[in-house]
Design goal:
This protein is an alpha/beta fold. It has helices at about 15-25, 80-85, 90-110, 145-165, 190-200, 220-230, 250-260, 285-290, 295-310, 315; strands at about 5-10, 30-35, 55, 70-75, 115-120, 170-175, 180, 205, 215, 215-220, 240, 245, 265-270. It has a domain at about 5-180 and about 215-245 and about 275-295: Rossmann fold (3-Layer(aba) Sandwich), CATH 3.40.50. The chain is built from 10 helices and 13 strands. The protein is globular, with a radius of gyration of 19 Å. Bound molecules: uridine-5'-diphosphate.
């Protein structure tokens, strides 16, 4: 029997590349698509030799064409770190709005089921804690994060509209902070930032007073949640993340202990609209998908640290991704 075919946008990125691995393991034919602004072919190099893997170098914000059948689409293309979307705000807005529209159109044409990657950022700086899916959020549309948050909120709206109006099979996942091997060391997010600083012998930069909280989910757990949601019949937004919450100050101390660095923790100004607290309520994921995270932070951090340690020296000192400059004006 012919294999089921899945399109994974952002397939060369952190989550996208882990999804490519998972769908290959599950026996799918995988088509990865990426424009490589923030994605990196090194993440999927090991898949190129496989007959059931294809790569399209394409920007989903422009018309997407895939020959042949397509059973599933996973839309994971987007810059995902605050410093990335500050540098490329227009592309960030386009990929989750125009890009999502193109992929919904493709899903209609191919009769595919589509899962879109939404985010805890739809809750903004949340006034409800932990965040339940019914909470509408507290987002500043014109702040520096607005380009990401509002594009993702639009993505949810248009996905629901295609579900209701065109009866498309849609899934919406709200992803909370996720970490693991293949994060970009220079993407500015807190975990690669701290580990990169420790490995380069720099001080660890905590933004603000370090009392803001986040809840970190290991990538294997996140991918399991994504897979289960896709295969479920649940079409409303669902939180997938690890509810184990920690302050950024304590997290810095954990990284100091993990890496054994002798450097100090120093304090820098808190970025505008940086959420003060974030923790998913995962009651729905537990009840509907039978999913909950399995990997503890200490296990996950060890795996991630071993990965970063194994990178070539020049990667440790790369400031920007090589393709980034041509997009930043
Ligand atoms: N942060 C920090 N030092 C850094 C990078 C980030 O203290 O070098 C903080 C940041 O201000 C935020 C938290 O860590 O409060 C998580 O930031 P990240 O960029 O990883 O993602 P966010 O959850 O804000 O989207």
């Amino acid at each position: 029997m012919a294999k089921q075919r899945v399109l994974i946008t952002g397939g060369a990125g952190f989550l996208g590349s882990h999804l490519c691995d998972r769908f290959i393991r599950e026996g799918f034919h995988v088509i990865a698509m990426d424009n490589l602004i923030t994605g990196d072919l090194r993440n999927i190099e090991h898949l190129f030799k496989l007959a059931d893997f294809e790569f399209y170098h394409h920007d989903v914000s422009t018309f997407v064409h895939i020959p042949g059948k397509l059973h599933y689409i996973l839309h994971f293309a987007s810059p995902a770190s605050p410093i990335d979307y500050l540098k490329i705000p227009i592309q960030t807005l386009k990929v989750s709005s125009l890009g999502t529209h193109n992929l919904l159109g493709l899903a209609r044409a191919k009769k595919s089921r589509i899962l879109v990657a939404s985010t805890s950022e739809v809750y903004g700086d949340p006034l409800v804690h932990p965040q339940v899916e019914e909470y509408y959020g507290n987002v500043n549309p014109i702040g520096p994060r607005g380009v990401y948050d509002e594009a993702k909120r639009f993505q949810e709206a248009i996905t629901m509209a295609y579900h209701t109006y065109h009866h498309l099979e849609t899934r919406i996942i709200r992803i909370f902070n996720t970490y693991g091997p293949r994060m970009r060391l220079n993407d500015g997010r807190v975990l690669p930032a701290f580990i990169g600083q420790a490995l380069r012998g720099e001080d660890l930069t905590v933004f603000g007073d370090g009392t803001q909280t986040r809840s970190f989910c290991f990538v294997d757990d996140e991918v399991e949640g994504i897979f289960r949601l896709l295969m479920s019949d649940y079409h409303l937004p669902m939180n997938i993340g690890n509810p184990n919450e920690i302050t950024i100050g304590d997290f810095a101390e954990e990284i100091v202990r993990l890496t054994g660095t002798k450097q100090k923790v120093i304090y820098k100004p808190l970025p505008v609209d940086d959420p003060k607290q974030r923790r998913p309520d995962i009651t729905k994921a537990k009840e509907i998908l039978g999913w909950e995270p399995k990997v503890s932070r200490s296990e996950g951090l060890k795996i991630t640290y071993d990965y970063f340690k194994s990178l070539p020296h020049e990667v440790l000192f790369e400031r920007d991704h090589k393709n980034f400059q041509k997009y930043v004006r």
